[in-house]
Structure formats: structure tokens, C-alpha cells
Amino acid sequence: MITLDLSKAKLAEDLGSYKEKVAEIHDMIRNKTGAGNDFLGWVELPENYDKEEVQLMKETAAKLREKVDVLLVCGIGGSYLGARAAIEAINGLYSDDKVEIIYVGNTFSSNYIHQVAKYIEDKDFAINVISKSGTTTETSISFRIFKEMCEKKYGKEGARERIVATTDREKGALKKLATDEGYVTFVVPDDIGGRYSVLTAVGLFPIAMAGIDIDEMLKGAKDAMVKYNDANIETNDAYRYGVARQLLNKAGYSAEMFVTYELQLNNVAEWWKQLYGESEGKENKGILPHSAVFSTDLHSLGQFIQEGSKVLYETIFEVKNPQNDMIIPSDPDDLDGLNYLAGKSVDYVNKRACEGTIDAHVNTGNVPNIIISLDKMDAYGFGYMVYFFEMSCAMSVYFLGVNPFNQPGVEVYKKNMFKLLGKPGY
Ligand SMILES: O=P(O)(O)OC[C@H]1O[C@H](O)[C@H](O)[C@@H](O)[C@@H]1O
């Protein structure tokens, strides 16, 4: 399902020489003995997930899908990126599914919030408000605005049928509000942090609302869970990727560019950035996670990658089989000189662009390339991919020597902002 090619990664060391260290970290993850060990619930989630809750998610989604045109997913960071990544990667950017998914609660931009409010005014909508802490300001402000809109439009009772809350089992303002209002509520497990939560209700409910098969997604994750439960660096590709990136870091590369060749994978990259950036960017350490979509960005960033300063390596995330393809037509006049491609598919061109670019960057530009290929981006493939990256991230960050599961630095701006806003207690 996933293959890893490190032959163009220009690694100066042999991964095999870290066999013992990797086996130790493997035990640390499995036996929950490392830093942040109370946030390892994602490791066995594909097997241990709450089956009844998943059933309720499917039933709630099926009912709401009959009723509404739009679902507002109200959340930020780990509380929306995974769902958005899945929905766009699988359904595309201009989906013909009957429910349109719109993301709010991820910004203080008044322009954006206003525009969404106008856009949904005459549409039938539901809201899934998602926050593990239940106190995130961006999410709370948007939720207050759209909840009011919903209650005005449908009345208290109608709004109750259209609002679903995903939050902590017991704690937080959102939990209290959801209980008081009587909303259907799903749980973010205590032992799973936001950036590892896409396969909990945080991701699964919106994904089910987009008409995607969440059982298949969990099945993909489960198969990956079995596959990557292997202490051996020689055979575990998740660990090989995790360690390879740290060896590149050690060799002086401080940025990783996650490259896809599909516009609809842009939010997979955004999800990946939070996963890696928030997990390892602490104690003045870590690799800057960056991303690009090729060939689009080859026309803007391509020059820098080819000939600019050698700060980055690329991780090419390739999907072997596109969901859709098109044939390039023949033209009798051939004024654009494209007839040499007539009859070929657009994806054929995309794949040759990928091959040619890897060759140019690696062999002429001297940029290390890690190549990760996924067979197919469907629900199963997405679940499989999520688990691959989560496991390689845990290995990679423990290998670096920091706690992969906290994010203390994120609070600094919040404190300043709260003080400026006059929030009580700041
Ligand atoms: O789910 P929430 O508690 O609202 O948190 C949403 C996001 O915001 C925080 O600031 C954290 O840095 C993220 O890790 C988290 O995913």
C-alpha cells in the first residue's frame, strides 16, 4: 500500500547502524515508557476504538445528510486538518457529493466568517463543533456566531437537531455547553492529542458527513498498525522514513519540503505539517516542515529548490493511481505543438513531470529526495497513510530526543492576546 524509496536521499550513514536505538524506541512506544506516554492512545486506536460510538457517528451522519446541504466543521489545528485532508483528498476540491463541507472556527478573519455566513444564509446547514480543550478562541467565536444563526433559523429545537459537538469526555466549556443544550456529543479520547486525532470522532464524523466510508478508513489504519508493529529498522518503512529525516537533519538540512503532485492533497500536507512541526519543533530543535504542490509550485519555488541555498530536502508523496484521468485530444492544426501527447493521459504527463523533477533536483540540484508512494487515495489508503505518518513521526521525534506529544510553545501568543483582549485572569 505504501512504498518508501531512500535511494535518492543521499544518506551519509547506514540506517542499520541504528538498529538498537530504533528497537529501544519501538519498545518505548509500545510499552508507553517514554516522555508524553499518556498520549499514546493512537497506537492501538485502529483496534481499540469505541465501536458503539463509530456506529452512532454513522447513524447521525446518515440522518443529517438527508436533512442538510452544508456542514460547517468548526475547529482549528488538529481539530479540523485531518478531516479536511481526508475529505479533499478523497472527494476532490469541487465535489459533487450532496453535502458541501465548509471549514470555520480556524480564523479570526472577519472577512472569511462574514462571507461564510452570507454563503449559507439560504442553505440548509448543520454544525459540527470540534475542540478537545473546549476553550479555543477561534473555534468558540465562530461557534457562537453560527450557533446563533442556526437557532434564529431553525429555533432552539431545530438547532439541537443540527449541532453535533466533539470534545473531551468531561472537561471544558464546550462539554458543559453541549450537555446543557442536549447536543449529540462525540468524545476526543484523553490519551490522544489533537494532531493524532483524525481517526477519532474529530475526523471520522465530518468524514462520514462527506459520504466517505469510515469503516474502510479504520481498516486501512488497522492494516498499517499490524504492518508497522515491527522493531526492525531494516524492514519497518515507517521507522526508516522517521530515522532518515533525522539523519538528514544531522547532516545540516533544516527544512523538509513535503511535495505532492495533486492540488487536492494540499491539506494532507497541512495535516502533515502540524503533525511533524508541533511534535518536534521544541527545545530549539526540529526540522521546519514545509510543503509544495508540483508542478504548480515548480513555476514559483522551482528555481530556489534547483539552485538556491541547500537548506532543504524533499519528501515526495506520490499517489500511484489517480481517482480520475483524462485523455489529451488530438488537434488537426496542432498550432500548440501538442500532438506528440495526443492520446496520452494527463496523469501520464504528471508522472513524467515527477520523474523528471526528481532527477533534476537530486542529480543536478543535489537536493536529497525521499520518495513515499501510496497505491491509491481512497478511504482505506487514507487510513493507512495516517497511521504510517503518525508512527514514523513518533519514532522520528523520540530519535531526535524530544517529547513528541506536547506543544507548550503554542500558549505564548495566546497569553499575550488574552492580555490585550482583557480576558479575566490575564
Ligand atoms: O481541539 P482544540 O483544543 O480546540 O485545539 C486545537 C488546536 O489548537 C491548539 O492551540 C494546539 O496547538 C493544537 O495542537 C490543537 O490541535
Automatic annotation (TrEMBL):
- CDD domains (UniProt xref): SIS_PGI_1, SIS_PGI_2
Q: In which pathway does it act?
A: Carbohydrate degradation; glycolysis; D-glyceraldehyde 3-phosphate and glycerone phosphate from D-glucose: step 2/4; Carbohydrate biosynthesis; gluconeogenesis
Q: What's the Enzyme Commission number for this chain?
A: 5.3.1.9
Cross-referenced InterPro entries, in alphabetical order?
Answer: G6P_Isomerase, Phosphoglucose_isomerase_CS, SIS_dom_sf, SIS_PGI_1, SIS_PGI_2
The principal location of this protein is cytoplasm
Q: Tell me the compartments it is located in.
A: Cytoplasm
Q: How would you classify this enzyme at the top EC level? A: isomerase
MF terms in GO: carbohydrate derivative binding; glucose-6-phosphate isomerase activity; monosaccharide binding
SUPFAM superfamilies from the UniProt entry: SIS domain
Q: Which GO terms describe its biological process?
A: gluconeogenesis; glucose 6-phosphate metabolic process; glycolytic process
Catalytic machinery residues: E278, K414
Q: Which domain of life is it from?
A: Bacteria
Question: What is an example of a Pfam family matching this protein?
Answer: PGI
What is catalysed by this protein? Answer: alpha-D-glucose 6-phosphate = beta-D-fructose 6-phosphate
Provide one Gene Ontology cellular component: cytosol
Stored NCBIfam families: PRK14097.1
Chain's role? Catalyzes the reversible isomerization of glucose-6-phosphate to fructose-6-phosphate.
Q: What is this protein called?
A: Glucose-6-phosphate isomerase
Source taxonomy:
Bacteria, Bacillati, Bacillota, Erysipelotrichia, Erysipelotrichales
Q: Which gene encodes it?
A: pgi
